[in-house]
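REQUEST ID: PR-0412
SUBMITTED BY: lab tech R.K.
PRIORITY: routine
TASK: structure prediction, single protein chain
INPUT:
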Amino acid sequence: MTPPARRALLARCFDAALARVAADAALRRALRREGDVLWLADQRLPAHAALHVVAAGKAAAAMARALEEVAGARIAGGLAVTKDGHELPVERLALRSAAHPVPDARSAAAGAAALAAAAAAGPDDWLLVLLSGGASALLSAPLPGLSLPDVRRTTEALLTAGAPIEELNAVRKHLTAVSGGRLARATRAARVVVLALSDVLGDDPAVIASGPCSADPTRFADALAVLDRRGARARVPGAVVAHLEAGARGEREESAKPGDPALARVAYRVLASSRDALAAACEAARAEGVRTVVASAALRGEARVAGARLAALARAVLADAPVLVASAGETTVTVRGPGRGGRCQELALAAALGLEGCEGTTLLAAGTDGSDGPTDAAGAFADGETVRRARARGLDAADALARNDAYAFFASEGGLVRTGPTRTNALDLALLLVAPPGGNAGRATAGRGSGG
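STATUS: complete
OUTPUT:
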């Protein structure tokens, strides 16, 4: 199989994964309309109940539009908040855009608007909450005593320190007013239905979107422990440390805990996750006669370490026919240099160094949301010739990795994967195709995830 054919096959597998976790399709599968009767998953909306809606995340606009198509006039009002560039026209909900992953003034305003929308639901009404990746940042209204710059600087400090999402959201739940079950506390609705696309390993409702309608197992002391573990206490505003320390002393109200009466009204369902994306990618490969192996459904840790391990795995595979070694998850990047990139690009760059000279192997590492770090790329391809091609252009792969500059490296080398906003989010995929160099499998037509 030629290098272009390997890339094309991986792109088709990635496209199949995106189709499986498409937000609009996932939501339509969970909705059912029978005349005036509307079902939200397994919850039947009473005929007399007004439906109020809060949608937030990178898939919010897509989910809102799908809801409007099914529910129509049953929607009493609400809003959809999405990341810049992920907008779609909606008719019955107010559409807002905000910054991600570091919140801006629009994020704070959107958080306040979400609380107001929840409060607008009366005791006979229902509140539908549609969640997807990115909602934590998009609804970042600070708690009393804190400012938006406090939340921004804390988010930046934890992101650059390589904090995983569980740690980042543990802190967010003690700094922001929508997270940690507080959205459920804000409403009088008789029923709160949450339909979510999971962008976290394990699909924990307390972590997805920082759990706006879920019990929070973490406490103020846990948030302080995250700052210390990541060496971030000295890099976040003093007001944040003082707030968390006051909370640890019992001087601030905690986030919602198990048994909170507001949570008794909540019904929660995960509509799609990385497991679905991973399964779809493998099914697409098998449909083309390629054997599949799932290396990890919980890929995590430093991106450069994960990339090196995947390269070592590729070298250990003895393939007499093409085999796809598939992984899903979310790695992290500890920023050490001045460059630009994302976790998938950094993983691919580290893998390229380990794959140098390894024939017949190609890796596609990309985020299902279509955006990898602060770049316009979803991820990157890497193979045994990546380092050589880059060297011919005067690029040093090891130096680029040391400077966290994977984006510039792959932009010059030709390995970037660009999909544009996918309006979904089910973590990242690392698809490793190991094939005998002279083999022949798969079609040569590139899919949506083809290199750019």
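NOTES: The chain has 16 helices and 15 strands.
REVIEWED BY: pending
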